Amino acid sequence: MGASKKEIIEKLHITGKNEQVYFHKLISNLSKYIEPLGLFIRFNPLDNHWFISYDMEVSNLVSANPFEDKPKLAATLFCVLVCCLSNLGHSKVKDIKDLRKKKGILKDLRKLEQLGYIKFNKEINEVSITPLIGYQLDLPQLFMKLSLKLKNKKDLKEK
Asked: Residue 63 — very low, low, confident or very high, per pLDDT cuts 50/70/90?
């Protein structure tokens, strides 16, 4: 899904010392051009691919739940995401259980694997995330909101 910056530059035959400038100008202009159609240019940091999204609301974790009234799966996926991103992309099931504070998360992990969000290595009890998450969630926005929330909690504790 999508294409890397290198792939886009190669396909458009952009060369020279200013190729980065041309690339960013292209992405910005294309984004402005397609926005009235309800389309957006997005970047998936998990696989470094640029792609077109239909609706920014789909990628906003706060206002959209890709799990259709299954908050348990969303909570488990969030814990997987936090554990994996803090452990170079992989996490032990035990760490996810500890963060989630639930014992029976194996069923959730199997379902998340079926949906394509994670890879679950049952032999070593390890989980890793797939790039699919980056196509459905706006990860930079999610992390920014989490950081602000953590900062606000810290500020409240200090008062």
From this structure: very low
